[in-house]
Structure formats: structure tokens, C-alpha cells
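Marked as duplicate of an earlier ticket. Keeping the data here for the record.
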Amino acid sequence: MRILFLKEKSRFRRRTNSPAGFDRSSEDLDCGLVSEELFIRLLCTERKRSERSRKFLLLMLLDVEKVLGTQDHGNEVLQKIVSALSFSTRDTDISGWYKDNSVLGVIFTEISGPDKTSILNTISAKVTTAVRKNLDLEQINEIQISFHFLPEEWGKQDSWRGANPERHPELLYGHHSRQFPRFLKRMMDIVGSILALTLFSPLFFLISLAIKLFSKGPVLFKQVRVGQYGRTFTCLKFRSMHSVNDTNIHKEYVKQFISGNCQSKRLGETQNAVYKITEDPRVTRVGKLLRKTSFDELPQLFNVLKGEMSLVGPRPPIPYELESYDVWHGRRLSEMKPGITGLWQVNGRSKTSFDDMVRLDLKYAQMWSLWLDIKILLQTARAVLSGEGAY
């Protein structure tokens, strides 16, 4: 039996074929295992609970496909494995199919201990001892066990890649059931972006001319942003700042804003923090108008056309922003593709606090429909015309 002490290692693929000699039609419930669908849902729920409580959970995966497929009595072997697990888990832990007929999973909830290494050593020792009592050496050698602490820590290097679907099986599980709605959303993005680019083409020319006349530098501002599942892409905007400026100003401001410790000063008065810096000295005269009307976002229609963004979705963050993310904030990167506008833009725009912005992003993903997208687009037009909350 090979035990892998891994923080983030897994294979997520849906399997429907049963191994030879193994029929799970009724035995898995008798063994006390929950179905793959229920297990993934419970894992999603426990992950969210862990993100909020800041008490991590441990996911143990047992690859039993080989041992069940090579045995003439697959159900009997499975019962022995489950029996061994029952002696090494608590009543509050959850056992079930992580992948049908292939990988068993155990969710150890609210794990506490001096350090993760000690926890892994303790649990793996219990599991190994229990399995050895029920299976022979040949069977044991055909089982591979791996451990994964959840949620991932966002403060470490490349931690934002934790939104990868390979580390969030609940995303892949629900992906197939939403393929057609996502196809419709993509079609709306393509048609909508083409129509908008055609409609605003004269405005593109006028804005480009104004930027060139009043400031030195390129017309477009290109910036790396983080999209769905942590994939990076080059986000396009009309340049609203001077070509040479200090990015540390925004970096420090965003850090304070995300942590909730930021106050913005404008016209000598203290006000609630907003997402964009008010009276930013780096912004040009033309840039102020572009930001007020949100016309600086128009080039992102090309990102939508390329499939990197959607017309409606969460705002794509800059990579350094994720250094200040709380663990539950990262879910906004996994639920939906980033968009030009979203619920937060039509609910106060830049005046929305970061936590509230994330809550709105998650609410949007949960309630998503084509009609909701249309409604948000119409409300966005009204918000842009009023100029409320824009800086």
C-alpha cells in the first residue's frame, strides 16, 4: 500500500464503468458509503464551512480500482476496506465514493493538532494498521492512499491556483449538467460583443484620438489578470493613466481595501473606502472621463470575443491582489468566468466593500440564468449613465 503525503495532488475524472467482478448496484449503501454525487456535495459544503471557520479539513483518497478489478469477489474486498475505515475514522467523518467504483474518499472534518505533519502521521498510522488487519499483503500493495488539506492557503506563492478544477471536484461534477446553459451564455457573449464592437466602433476611434492628443503613450493598457480556475490572460483597457506611474500605490491600496482597513480621502473629507482610488494623481484628464463613464472597459469586448471573459461575471483580479485574499474569497475565481460587469457594478459599483463584492459574485454564480445576465446588462447601462459609484 503506497501512502502519499500530498497537500495538493489528485486526479478528477468521472468514471461509470465498474471493474471486473465488482457490482455496486446495492452494496455500497450496505457498506455505509455515500454515493459519488452526495459525497462531492458534502465535500463542497464542508470546504465552505472550513473556509469560514478557519478550521481546515483533511481529505483522504484511496485508489481501490486496481484491487477491486483484480479480485473475484470485489464486493467482499470493498466491505473489508470499509470495515477497516470504520475503525480509523470518527462518527463525524464522511466516507463515500469520490469517483464511482474507483476512488474512495474520507472527509476528516475540523482537524486540530500541533502541526499538519503530526496529523498526517497519526491518521495514516491508524488507517494502515486497520487495513493490514483486514487485507492480505497483495491486496494492500494494490491500494494507493493520498492526503489533501483543504482549503488551500491563499497567502503562499502560486496559491491562487487553488481555484483549479482539479482541486475542486465539486466544480467538475456540476459542469456536465450546466453545459447547455454555459453554451447559451457563450453564444450571448459572442453575439453581444460583436454587436457592441460594431455599435461603439466610432467611439473607439474618438477615444483613441483623445488619448493620443492629451497624453504620451499607447492607446491601450494591457495588464495580466486572473481568470476562471486561476488561468491568467491579458486584459485590455483604454489607457486612463500616465504611461509612467508607481504601481505600488494601487498595490498597497488594494491590500488595505481587501483587508477592510482602508479609508479613502477625497476633498479633505474621510469617507468609506471604495474599490478605486479617488482623486488618483496617476489618472489623466481624459482618463477621468473614461473612468467616470466606464468607457475605459470597452476594449475588454475583445477579451469576451476570445472567450477569456464574459459580458457578465466577477471582476478579474490582478495577481498581486490574491496575496491578500482570505480563503473563501478564492471561490469567486472558480464559480464563473470573469466579466466586464456584474452584480457588484449595479449595486454601488466602486462603493461596494470587498467582502460584499465577493458575496455578490458568489450569489450571481448561484442564481445564474440568461435572464439575470440580461437584467444586469440593462442595469449596468443605467449605472453608467448615472455615473454613480464610478471614479
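See parent ticket for discussion. The first strand starts at residue 2 and ends at 4.
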